[in-house]
Amino acid sequence: MNVASPGPQGSLVIATPANAAHLSRQSKSGAALRLAPGLYAVGASLPPEQIARHHLHAIVALFWPGGVLCGITALHGGGGPVNGVVYVAQPEPTRPTALHLPGITIVPVIGPAALPGDTGMPEGLVLSGPARVLVENVHLRGRPARYRAGTKLVEDRIDELARSGGAGRIQRVLDQLDVIASAFDPSEVRIVRDRLAAVLGSISSEVTPTSPRLAARLSGTPFDAHRVEMVQRLVRILQDRSPQPMPAFPPSSRWEWLAFFEAYFSNFIEGTEFGVDEARRIAVEGVIPESRPADAHDVSATYRLSVDPSDRVLIPRTGEELLGVLASRHRVLMAARIDKHPGEFKIQPNYAGGYQFVDPDLVRGTLIKGFDAINLLDDPFARSVAMMLLITECHPFDDGNGRVARLTSNAELSAAGQVRVLIPIIYRNNYLAALSGVSGGAGNGESLISVLEFAQRWAAAVDWSTYAGAHTILTNCNAFVDPGLADSTGQRLIIPR
């Protein structure tokens, strides 16, 4: 069995009687990497730990089909290991023992199969839902913690639910808890129910939360009406636009290096500038320059997110899910910049020149309300454009907003099998001017649609199958030309023929 994965991560292959000997020979020759007994990555060139991380969800699905990413793993979003471990639940685990991969251990636990409220994941996996993840992580005195994060972190999560959705969100989780309660220990359910009730103001005096964050604001989620109207106007224009799909046609090898150049250009837009060869060594080979480790991490993390088979197609279905997706991507992207508060929404206003983005207290509500407007769209490209505007206008984080916006916008395209949008260096000013035009009231987004549409057509015309070949094409297309120089010399981005 093969799980295709173009790029230096190789393809995942399970040994069978028919191919076991061949895989063994490939492993000895270096053409395949043995990740675990009977499990190989063929054609991979990255370090083993990175290969295992890349194929993580596919591997979990192979050994525990339909498994539920649970406990600590679910509390952290299910995107990867926490302290090197991933927990997966099944009523009767198909493999009862842990699977040890390079840098990752997958541990099966006995737990319910998918329940109402759980979230579907790539590869047929499931992620514990909002109520279930709370119950799974409370820690009862006298019992081993195992896969549990502990009651304090559960209380922190309840606080996050209250801050993002107010009393209404807490009530929905409480209702969901009632639906799934019979699948868990009554003592665990009672701990969660009491704390949810505390947020609604009906807590018993006997309950003393251990988290100081539990009693957060409960008065609803205000939003920036001007920005929501801006998104709604763009949505109306996009609704009148005939879809023009741009499929990422096979073979998949043609797109092998697109993710790298996407990450390279996305960071260049934000001023994180490396030579393209150095950026390749950083992102793909893991070579981190001592003089600029944080900048190097930005490039590497953007690449990991853009190439990850799960995250690159991860799209939210609700406004609440959008908050989680953005926070998760930002947490990965800004992991090397603790001062930028990875995964946390801003608490101070931010600006571009004299233009102020959405006020911190209005970010969550604006994202949720804006997403409601975007959900009126069916066309993936239209959703991609609208998502780009919404996240850019909110600027929800201290830093990394542009990169998170482009990743989230492109996920709408990848999820539909369409070509992702790249903004090469020469096209930077066109892209930023289009966004600024919407902000300044110059139209309702018509220029932004045109700019992103051209960028997608350009990306679709490039052969990304090899690094050297793509680099040559991009050079001939003027992709690497400084935009200021291009403006003064009349050069423009050329679509290859």
List the helices and strands and how they pair.
Layout: E1 2-3, E2 11-14, H1 20-29, E3 32-36, E4 39-42, H2 48-54, H3 56-63, E5 68-69, H4 71-75, E6 85-90, E7 99-101, E8 104-110, E9 119-120, E10 126-127, H5 130-137, H6 151-180, H7 186-199, H8 225-239, H9 258-269, H10 276-283, H11 293-307, H12 319-333, E11 351-352, E12 355-356, H13 363-374, H14 380-394, H15 401-415, H16 428-439, H17 446-461, H18 467-476, H19 483-489
Parallel strand pairs: 5-10, 6-8
Antiparallel strand pairs: 1-2, 2-4, 3-4, 5-6, 7-8, 9-10, 11-12
Structure summarized in a few sentences:
The protein has 497 residues and is α+β, with helices and mostly antiparallel strands. It contains 19 helices and twelve strands.
What is Rg? 23 Å
- What is the CATH first-level class name of the domain at 225-489? Mainly Alpha
Estimate what percentage of residues fall within beta strands.
Answer: 5-15%
CATH superfamily of the domain at 225-489: Fido-like domain
Structural class: alpha+beta
Overall 3D form: globular
Q: Order of strands across the widest beta sheet?
A: 7-8-6-5-10-9
- Overall mean confidence score, pLDDT: 89
State the CATH topology of the domain at 225-489: Fic-like fold
Number of strands: 12
Count of alpha and pi helical runs: 19
How would you characterize the largest beta sheet?
6 strands, mixed
What distance separates the N and C termini?
37 Å
Which runs of at least 5 residues are low in confidence (pLDDT < 50)? Answer: 1-5, 215-220
> Helical content, roughly?
40-55%
CATH architecture of the domain at 225-489: Orthogonal Bundle
